[in-house]
Recover the amino acids of this structure.
């Protein structure tokens, strides 16, 4: 499949709604993503409700991933290491961004988050060093540990009034951050 550049598939995994291991590499004969063709740059999921754990883990050549509108769960490390991914729209059906979901997506510049997200997990955007801004949804209540650490191009951050928990190191290494507004009803910072 040396010339394969785009794949359109209804879902990843053994069956629709599968939350177990379901990596892109499975369709290329591997239990991990080492056999994913280097030429593959674009994935379109048309009928998926779940993006499983490590689904696109270190698929470094992917530039564009289109998620179906019915996706409601994104497993941990799902897009970690997708270093050529530059933008992504997270459908409004998603309510949580799990741990390390976008970690090490160093070229991720633009992300449109679901307006229904209530939790951003630990290390969710760690080392997304090209990320310039994030519009946090109003429903957000929790920002995990080191969630935005290493996001060196972020310049300002406005946190919803509903946020009650901000994990330790959430903004560590955000060297260009010049303004952050933390709401008065935050109950925990660093715990």
């Amino acid at each position: 499949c040396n010339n394969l550049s785009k794949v359109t598939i209804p879902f990843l995994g053994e069956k629709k709604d599968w939350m177990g291991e379901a990596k892109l590499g499975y369709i290329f004969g591997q239990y991990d993503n080492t056999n994913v063709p280097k030429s593959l740059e674009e994935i379109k999921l048309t009928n998926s409700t779940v993006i499983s754990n490590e689904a696109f883990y270190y698929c470094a050549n992917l530039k564009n991933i289109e998620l179906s509108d019915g996706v409601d769960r994104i497993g941990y490390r799902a897009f970690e290491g997708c270093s050529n991914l530059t933008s992504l729209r997270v459908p409004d059906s998603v309510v949580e961004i799990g741990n390390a979901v976008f970690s090490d997506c160093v070229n991720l510049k633009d992300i449109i988050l679901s307006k229904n997200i209530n939790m951003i997990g630990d290390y969710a955007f760690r080392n997304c060093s090209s990320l310039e801004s994030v519009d946090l949804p109003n429903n957000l209540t929790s920002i995990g540990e080191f969630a935005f650490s290493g996001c060196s191009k972020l310049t300002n951050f406005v946190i919803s009034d509903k946020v009650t928990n901000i994990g330790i190191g959430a903004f560590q290494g955000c060297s260009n951050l010049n303004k952050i507004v933390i709401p008065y009803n935050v109950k925990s910072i660093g715990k």
Observations:
- The radius of gyration is 16 Å.
- DSSP finds no helices and 14 strands in the chain.
- The first strand starts at residue 6 and ends at 9.
